[in-house]
Target: Replication factor A1
Amino acid sequence: MDVNSHAEELASDLGVDKAEVKADLENLLEYSVPIDEAKQSVRRKHGGGGGGSSPTPESVDLSEITTDHGNVTVTVRVLTRGTRTIRYQGDDLTIREGELADGTGTISYTAWQDFGFEPGDSLTIGNAGVREWDGEPELNLNESTTVAIADESVTVDQEVGGDRDLVEIAAGDRGRNVEVRVLEVESKTISGRDGETEIREGVVGDATARLPFTDWDPRPELEAGASLRIEDVYAREFRGVPSINLTEFTTVTPLSESVEVAESAPRLSVAKAVASGGMFDVELVGNVLEVRDGSGLIERCPECGRVIQNGQCRSHGEVDGEDDLRVKAILDDGTDTVTVVLDDELTAEVYGGGLEDALAAAKDAMDKEVVAESIAETLVGGAYRVRGSLSVDEYGATLDATGFEAADDDPADAARETLAEVRA
Ligand SMILES: [Zn+2]
Model:
């Protein structure tokens, strides 16, 4: 039976115009709705009764939906749609996820099959399941769900589509599109769920921020210096910072014009930076209060790179430690404090000598601590401008420094200014 015959049958059953019924049916079929469900939906629309297994739940506004709801019918605008594969009970499933909106609010959704809708579409979604995700209600679109084009376009306040600046990207975002320049990239082999897999990792930037990325389906277009439009990425949290993830569904298009990348990192007060929960690239200015234990000449486990105490690694037991230089300093700007970690190169600059010099000094003094003491003499009480990646966890806030230099401005003044701006 073709659409025409179905339409004819329905039209005569319902006593309505065949052309109208046919248009409705075609709308639904365009969204891959199975013909039986499509016919039920058209019957309901024309008052012919559902005739299906599950009655259509009452229509609700998105703002009314709570995690106590079972199934709902909503009329919404699709804001975003992302695609990815997840492993579910041993099978790889392709799911679509994103946000929907109506005049009253927004809600996240997961579609377990391809209903064919796109950002911007106005839809009536029937019999969608409500589940709790991160404490919030989310819609589950599954095989009992019907998706049809809404009778009227749904007006929403939210931006339709996934285009975002990097500074707007947050962990949990899905179906996002960015225009960026690749700043760093390297290949890496990991042991994934399917054995050894090659991935690419690096850093991308735009005029607003820099963020780390992982390409799970490595493609050659992502080379250092390339300006690209990257569509359909998702963001997840990596050490307190949102990280951009490219999947097999992500599309990458070279841009003819180079994407402008901010040279400087956003400057924040320590309190505001810590409150953000983590930033990939931030600048802080403060006074060094203290150089902590575990600074200066240290030893690392050759297996895992962790700093070891008395030749003992927490994971690998007794090991032959490798010498290295590091600084862990407490930086304070009057709003809060953060632990700043300097790597071997930045430590060498602060110390005024490299590993060989440090080892020689320790040998002369017959005490390794002289290196940390010398660094503390230089740093403590001074004002410094620090740039790097901030992570925040239950142990506190840590900034892995990529830049460290004496500050010419008074950190307390700067912090007061930043606070004043925040309050204004
Ligand atoms: Zn180890």
